[in-house]
Amino acid sequence: MKFAIRFAALLLGAALPAVAVRAADKPLDWPAKQITWVIGFVPGGTADVLTRIAAQELARRTGLNVIVENRPGAAGAIALQLVARSKPGDGYLLTVPGPLIYPSPQPEVGRELAPVILMAQGPMVIVGPAKQAKPSLQAVLDDARAHPDAWSYGSSGNGTSQNLAGELLNQYAGTRIVHVPYKGGGQAVADVAGGQIPLAILGSAPVMPQIKAGVLKAYAVTTAYRLDSLSDVPTVAESGFNGYEASQWFSVAAGSTLPAAQLDQVNAALRGALDTPEFRAALDNAGMVAGGGSREDLLQFIQADSAKWKKLLDSGAVKLEN
Predict the structure, then answer these.
(1) Each residue of 210-228: pLDDT tens digit?
(2) Pairwise pLDDT comparison (16 vs 302), residue with the higher score
(3) Using 50, 70 and 90 to split pLDDT, how confident is the model at 314?
(4) What is the per-residue burial (b if ≥16 Cβ within 10 Å, else e) of 291-315?
(5) What is the CA radius of gyration of the chain?
(6) Under DSSP, is residue 176 helix (H, G, I), strand (E, B) or coil?
(7) 83 near 243, Cβ under 8 Å?
């Protein structure tokens, strides 16, 4: 299976209302009357939360209205294709989450899509319904080995970072927990909270309220470090699987036909947006680290991350669904 590693998006749910701006820090000579920021998943996930804040700040800093549109479907591929085929006059930006792997080639950042900026990176959380909770992740995996037909986990889609994290866990634990893909994290949260699925691996932002409310039990975080906001929740490595580590990231891209000079301006505006108290607070709540850097920095980051996962996939250690 040939995998094109990609990422599609962190955009705003139900079209974020246009943000009226009185004055811009630095007016942007954009080829459209507004910026349309596209996300390839339904509202409610970490990407949605972060992008809403970034979009509002981008509007203030550029003097343009920013409209956010959700274009879910095909694990984000519909949004990728929309922006990749766009013309400069469409004025599209795209939130691209990663790592994200497709079974057939899709538009890539650095090829059909132009890099803009890395927004953030951080952990995912393994959760289950609190009413049916096992005492630990190790207990979950012990039961999954004994009763393989009883266990499944939800994610925001096939080939997403959450799907990768789940299959990596299967490899480490010697389990065959079945993957259940959703069109976005919000839908998966609802089903795991309601007990329709026994596990989910999702970004921290959408599950945090249910964890705090006692509706969901957090078994572990996927990064090598614990979250300050979930300080009593161990990492997967601390749960008995030394060496396990998986993170997710969120970036911004655009159609490759947009002029580089204008994308450099967007990069500069978003670098400022990532440093605002509002964005930093959202990152802290999600246990994520701010991105930033140049457009070239993003391209190099994506290429390195893609190589890491491709090596693992080519080894056959992790199997993903077609």
Answers:
(1) 999 999 999 999 999 998 8
(2) 302
(3) confident
(4) bbebbeebbebbeebbeebbeebee
(5) 19
(6) coil
(7) no
Tell me the two tokens of residue 275: 């440093």
Q: Where are the beta strands (DSSP E) in the chain?
A: 4-5, 34-39, 65-70, 92-98, 101-102, 113-122, 124-129, 152-155, 178-181, 199-203, 216-221, 248-255, 289-292
Class of the 4-121+247-314 domain?
A: alpha beta
Name the H helices within 29-105: 46-62, 77-84
Domain spans, the chain: 4-121+247-314, 124-239
Contact (Cβ atoms closer than 8 angstroms) between residue 102 and residue 8: no
Same topology between domain 4-121+247-314 and domain 124-239: yes
- pTM for the full predicted model: 0.77
Residue 231: strand, helix, or coil: coil
Query: Out of 1.10.10.10, 3.10.310.10, 3.40.190.10, 3.30.465.10, which CATH number does the structure's domain 124-239 have?
Result: 3.40.190.10
Take residue 62 and report the two structure tokens written for it: 């550029």
Question: Tokens 């409209």 sit at which residue?
Answer: 67
